[in-house]
Design brief:
Blueprint: H1 2-21, H2 28-39, E1 42-43, H3 48-60, H4 65-87, H5 91-102, H6 104-110, H7 115-136, H8 140-144, H9 146-155, H10 159-174, H11 180-205, E2 206-208, H12 214-228, H13 235-238, H14 247-253, H15 260-263, H16 273-289, H17 291-306, H18 333-345, H19 353-366, H20 371-390, H21 400-417
Parallel strand pairs: 1-2
Length: 426
């Protein structure tokens, strides 16, 4: 019965997500990835593994429903395994899992077909398996955790920052008799191998390269150019005969919290490898010479991303972007009601990532050097820190793993405060 409560309560939360958001909300990114899944032609602007996984699901049941089930099942399994290992199987673990799912910023993200959701859920599943291996003193769950760690790295370019501490923890669990330094070296090797496998998988699936990193380069160069009043874009954009990009155009397009207006302006993106190389070299020249404007630009991005002094830009997504794929939502009074309630909460601390990072830091202190807490919490902080420099927008979805990490570390801190609830065997 204790194990049933551990699994059934969070399952009820996932079922409620499905009831509200079925068959799944889809943003423009989701529509693009479904189109690639149906065509079987994968571009690297979005991780091809996501569309490749979606392709057979869409054939079984056309539309977003299959991927919604995968996202929900992965988060549900990760939560149940983690809470059982952290708090002991039973009502407390089940209630903790249900509480996590019902939190508005988790609940709303789980209803959208996003690679970010599956990535964060995969990291949580890996963390749960590693914690079970740690508490149960058995290597098998740690070996199984390798699969979701690989998937997470294949789904987001900055996922290795979150996976690295988990891989170091896995190294100590898989080779328990090794010295501390050898276990750390094994963990680093595991992380490098999984990252290499993720990159190789993406390259194998990719039909046409679009170089998504260029959106970061373009956004940064625009900010630095405007700050220095000097056009620092590479010659293929700045000096071309037809429609050269001027400072005035950059000024009209630039938004400190969003790269899309510049990236998707006509003629800005390129699929030419040599031109992307020029763009990279221009970025490498400009940033060191204009470090303060660059850091101010990225600080503005961080403010939007973490909700510091500004309202969150995209805290959730309700609905399906108009498309020609035949995907549309039926009217739903329940979904409309939930959307209305979420709108009322969007400016509250629940949707401000800085509050979650503060919780994560406090939970790390309370966990008292627990190695599980350190691995999970440091991964959450590393993802948040890397996002400041790598993400093209201030969407809440980019911070889903730091938020889940904060909740996971808080549970481990609770275990320290209330140790009688922590045994797996009870």
């Amino acid at each position: 019965m204790k194990h049933l409560a551990t699994w059934l309560l969070p399952l009820a939360g996932v079922a409620l997500v499905f009831a509200v958001f079925w068959p799944g909300q889809m943003s423009p990114d989701s529509v693009w990835q479904l189109a690639m899944a149906r065509e079987g032609v994968y571009l690297d602007w979005h991780p091809p593994i996501f569309s490749a996984l979606w392709r057979p699901l869409d054939r079984l049941h056309p539309g977003p429903a299959g991927m919604l089930l995968v996202e929900g099942a992965t988060l549900w399994a990760g939560l149940a395994i983690f809470t059982s290992a952290a708090l002991g199987p039973g009502l407390l673990a089940g209630a903790a899992g249900l509480f996590v799912i019902l939190l508005p910023p988790i609940f709303s993200e789980l209803g959208v077909i996003w690679k970010d959701v599956l990535c964060a859920a995969s990291l949580l599943l890996a963390a749960g398996l590693l914690l079970r291996a740690d508490r149960g003193r058995t290597r098998a769950p740690a070996l199984v955790a390798v699969a979701p760690l690989w998937l997470a790295m294949a789904l987001r370019y900055n996922a290795p920052f979150g996976a690295l501490p988990l891989c170091l923890w896995a190294g100590a669990l898989i080779w328990p008799k090794a010295s501390k330094w050898r276990a750390a070296a094994a963990g680093l090797a595991l992380c490098a191998a999984l990252a290499g496998l993720a990159v190789s998988t993406s390259n194998l699936l990719t039909r046409h390269r679009m170089y998504p990193v260029q959106q970061v380069f373009l956004h940064d160069l625009a900010a630095i150019s405007l700050a220095s009043d000097e056009n620092l874009l590479p010659p293929y954009l700045r000096d071309r005969r037809r429609l050269p990009v001027t400072l005035e155009q950059l000024r009209a397009l630039y938004r400190p919290d969003l790269a899309d207006p510049i990236t998707f302006a006509p003629g800005m993106r390129t699929a030419d490898r040599d031109q992307v190389g020029e763009l990279r070299r221009a970025w490498l020249r400009a940033v060191p010479r204009n470090l303060l404007p660059y850091l101010r630009h990225r600080l503005n991005m961080a403010r939007g991303l973490f909700g510091v002094g500004v309202d969150p830009k995209l805290p959730f997504w309700i609905g399906v972007t108009p498309n020609d794929l035949g995907v549309a939502l039926e009217p739903s009074a329940l979904r409309d009601r939930v959307g209305h309630e979420l709108e009322g909460l969007r400016t509250t601390p629940l949707f401000r990532v800085w509050c979650w990072l503060l919780l994560l830091a406090a939970a790390l202190v309370a966990a008292r050097r627990d190695r599980a807490a350190i691995a999970i919490g440091s991964g959450g902080l590393l993802v948040a820190a890397s996002s400041i420099f790598l993400v093209p927008a201030g969407d809440l979805r980019y911070s889903l793993w730091p938020m889940l990490a904060a909740l996971a570390v808080a549970m481990l801190a609770l275990r320290r405060i209330w140790p009688t609830s922590s045994s797996i065997g009870r």
